[in-house]
Amino acid sequence: MKRSLSRRAFVLTVGGGLAGMSLAWGLGGVQRLERMVGWRESLVEQCCAPADYHGWIVTAVDKEKLILGRHVTMMEDTDLPGQDIESGRVADASECSAWCLSEEDCLSFTYAKPNHPDAGKQGMCWIKASDAIRTVPSPFYVSGVVD
């Protein structure tokens, strides 16, 4: 007696086998994908992870492009009055310097130290459009000139 397979049984048998193969391949594919994503994330962290840089979200590569070829000569206990482009409160003199380097028109800056007697000026950064500014000795400021 010849035994016949119903269409439903055939679909379930073949479909179940294909689904099992797909699942097995898919799990391996997921693991390969996780390895690829992990590899990609480590590359992103090395070169392109965004960082907050004085209110600007930039990657390490972009930061290098912004400050490439520019250097700051720091002057401790020195004020450079006048020629302000912009001002704002920053964490420290290095952040003020970084802000100046990120602005194309900035040629110098002055940062008011936290011990400044005027509380309104403490932590303030003034970026300036000139590097030919008169220097004024003051223990309450740090300034810098872009070379």
Would you give an account of this structure?
This protein is an alpha+beta fold. The protein has two domains: 7-49; 62-146, Hepatocyte Growth Factor, CATH 3.50.4. Helix content is 41%, strand content 28%. It is built from three helices and seven strands. The chain has helices at 7-48, 60-67, 93-102, and strands spanning 51-53, 56-58, 72-79, 84-89, 108-112, 124-128, 136-146. The strands form two sheets. The protein has a five-stranded antiparallel sheet, covered by helices on one side. A two-stranded antiparallel sheet has the order 1-2. It starts with 6 loop residues before the first helix and ends with a strand. The mean pLDDT is 76.
Quick description:
The relative contact order is 0.15. The chain has 147 residues and is an alpha+beta fold.
